[in-house]
Amino acid sequence: MVCLVEMYEKPSLKDPVLIEGLPGIGFVANIAALHLIHELQAKRFAEIHSSTFQDLAVTTEDGKTRSPLNELYYCKGRDGERDIIIWYGNTQALTTAGQYELCGRVLDIAKELGCKYVITLGGFRQEEIRGPPQIYCAASDRETVERILGLGTKIMVGQIFGIAGIMVGLARLRRMKSFSLLVDTLGTYPDADATRSVLSVLSRFLHMSIGLTRLNSAAEETKRILESFGLIRNVVEEKKREEQQFRWFI
Amino acid sequence: MVCLVEMYEKPSLKDPVLIEGLPGIGFVANIAALHLIHELQAKRFAEIHSSTFQDLAVTTEDGKTRSPLNELYYCKGRDGERDIIIWYGNTQALTTAGQYELCGRVLDIAKELGCKYVITLGGFRQEEIRGPPQIYCAASDRETVERILGLGTKIMVGQIFGIAGIMVGLARLRRMKSFSLLVDTLGTYPDADATRSVLSVLSRFLHMSIGLTRLNSAAEETKRILESFGLIRNVVEEKKREEQQFRWFI
Amino acid sequence: MVCLVEMYEKPSLKDPVLIEGLPGIGFVANIAALHLIHELQAKRFAEIHSSTFQDLAVTTEDGKTRSPLNELYYCKGRDGERDIIIWYGNTQALTTAGQYELCGRVLDIAKELGCKYVITLGGFRQEEIRGPPQIYCAASDRETVERILGLGTKIMVGQIFGIAGIMVGLARLRRMKSFSLLVDTLGTYPDADATRSVLSVLSRFLHMSIGLTRLNSAAEETKRILESFGLIRNVVEEKKREEQQFRWFI
Amino acid sequence: MVCLVEMYEKPSLKDPVLIEGLPGIGFVANIAALHLIHELQAKRFAEIHSSTFQDLAVTTEDGKTRSPLNELYYCKGRDGERDIIIWYGNTQALTTAGQYELCGRVLDIAKELGCKYVITLGGFRQEEIRGPPQIYCAASDRETVERILGLGTKIMVGQIFGIAGIMVGLARLRRMKSFSLLVDTLGTYPDADATRSVLSVLSRFLHMSIGLTRLNSAAEETKRILESFGLIRNVVEEKKREEQQFRWFI
């Protein structure tokens, strides 16, 4: 199967922006997406299961079960704001091939809905954070880089891992522009402060006012959900990651 | 190939319940399914091979061979009892993707036979068991939760691994309801006592009388079969499992 | 791609027997197949590449290259002997799924050529061999078991790994009968003696006289080929194998 | 998806030679390909993404992103020189199956453009290099071997890993001839000297004059790109490679 997509509705959108919000470093994107869904009262229109998600379910307090899942939400812009598609989920794919497949499926859906612009959010792991967290950007094209730099960000230097990283290339293949916002974070817990900084840049980019008073509760909910799936842990997996990947090399 | 399904017969069933009974923690589901097949004189109607099963065969005492295999059985309810489909096998799939594929294939077959309800059984590993083993439940919807709680079970808190776990989400995608019964077990041997407790709840749910005198022989047979495939071992693999899965994370 | 099959010729055969001869324990099947190809002057009619073979080539003394490969040969029986298909190769697949796929493809070809009977050969690893090596058998059905026991073999007790093991189940799905001949071997080098014993039973089964004087040179050639691919090694991999396979378990 | 190919142009070529230049031992092929693209002012006509590449992006100094990618370039021969297709990229595939798939796709494209001849380049790792590096060859057929030996090379003895290795077999299946040029290298850094030696043989084979003055800058650029992807490292991965591959064996 790889990906199984169930679409409840095919929304009619005008030039929507796709915002990716899956769990990752500092859980920044995940908190931000959940918060946006709440604040913008976004509507769920698709659910995605993948055979490269974990093979388990977790239980909720009332005896129901929750599966590893990705979801797509939309909200129509008010007063000339842009339409938005939010890609939310409680997991990324467990394999590299699964990541590419998932990303390709979501981009295909977004493109069919008229999307030409993709935004990914993420954390940039630091050993130590002093002062307010810095926001970094990387983009598909020079024009977008300039635009995002104008919002008070710096140029990102390094690697962007996972879905946020492969979105760029796969979006470009579909003639979509894209940029990433990354923010300083220790990366080991759901970082509401880092998320707040990212959302503040994002809201300026979208010319959209996003209330931030309820952000902490989105961070709390993110923590609860990801803990139930065993996805919040202290272990630094990056070393293992490297070790697994370069089978063909040297 | 992934899954190769050979259907001997397409039984005509009325609103059947699918009961999953593959090897897992405490081998509870596997013993229960084998016992039900014996007691209900269920009839085999399909066999499933998967390229994600082990690549070996084992020999039987009379010189014949036995392959890693899943099977589907049915029995027509007597005196107004419900029709039942039993999913039995000597293995689960060895990969996450294989688990999803296998589960999806079986659910597709069950749905085509009119099934709208799925039950999974399993063990809930404990370090120590004092007194009679407790039964826990988790379900797709609040109504089912209430119904199963009424049979003397508690709400399950935690993760449900493997096929039993992914059944929930994949069943929901096919508009099927489902619940899991999990029972305290040490988990390291085929646990006839734990199975007896689960079957007693199950028989009340199905309004069906299930004789339990021959349960020990089903446990013995389960032990023999799974030992021949090298599937009964003392090693706790959960830690390894965790280590393998979170490649994309942090 | 998984498997890429190139058929040079579609031979017209009458009720042929398929004999599997890939590298495995003691390299018994591999030596036997190579020897049969030489002795029976079998003709190559198909070559199979798989994306689950090693990703390398080896060089030969004259500067040419040799790829990981499986091949199918046939020979028409003389004087009422049966037609034979020989499945030869310098490797098995590297993944479980690859093994199933490869096996399925070869069985499909064999079935299309009228084959209803499959023979696999292999070594049965022993710590120590005293006296002439014993031959063991396992078969798809009781009648075949009796027939092979009548040739001086014993009933095999244990697991049959790899292609030889999965052939049984996949052949049965295609309504083909099958049996395995396994022979005592230390398993760590190309064992010409063990191969000689197996071929002697096989020739009686096939009512076919197979010269054995040149068997040692087939063993030598097998050694040379497999060493060039790095496939002859002392390491016991079985433990690792176990560790890798049971991800879903306990 | 496995491979996603975007062709910008379908060039009209006459009997072109395909030259493979992906990162590998000593980065010889990768430097050579980049240098050829520069020197011959080759034109990019296709880009290939694969779900078996790394799931990340890297940033460039000006804030743009770079994805794991393979590309195809062509240049039309001047003054009777042969047309050339150059296969360049910043990565090989991360899995064996991915390597086969990638290679098959590129060969299919090359064949459709009239290619009947494939050249792969690579390093031959040595513990120590004394004097000018020796060039070794291996080829699909005896005639080609002789021709390449005539250019001052020796016969390669050993294994050719990765894409360079599997090209041979997959090219042969498509009725294409091929040869490999391998050169002594320590293998742990982008080796401009080794590349220079290989290019000198290649230019004689192609009867083409290739300027080498700017080769060092191609080596520098290769180093920068591969370092950004984390692909230049000191670790000897070959042992790990062996350990991973022989799951089915002994």
Q: What is the strand tally of chain A?
A: 12
Strand percentage of chain A lies at: 25-35%
How many helical stretches of chain A? 7
Q: Largest sheet of chain A at a glance?
A: 9 strands, mixed
What does this structure look like?
The structure is a homotetramer of 250-residue chains. Chain A is built from seven helices and twelve strands. The two termini of chain A are 34 Å apart. The first copy, chain A, is globular, with a radius of gyration of 17 Å. By secondary structure, chain A is α/β, with parallel strands linked by helices. In chain A, the strands form two sheets. A nine-stranded mixed β-sheet of chain A has the order 1-3-6-7-2-8-12-9-10, with helices on both faces. A two-stranded antiparallel sheet of chain A has the order 4-5. In chain A, β6 and β7 form a beta hairpin. Chains A and B meet through β3, β4 and α7 of A and α2, β9, α3, β11 and α4 of B.
Outline the secondary-structure elements:
Four copies of one chain form a homotetramer.
Chain A: E1 3-7, E2 17-21, H1 28-39, E3 43-50, E4 56-59, E5 65-66, E6 70-75, E7 84-89, H2 96-112, E8 117-125, E9 135-139, H3 142-149, E10 154-155, E11 159-161, H4 162-173, E12 177-185, H5 192-205, H6 215-228, H7 238-245
Parallel strand pairs in A: 2-7, 2-8, 8-12, 9-10
Antiparallel strand pairs in A: 1-3, 3-6, 4-5, 6-7, 9-12
Helix pairs in contact in A: 1-5, 1-6, 2-4
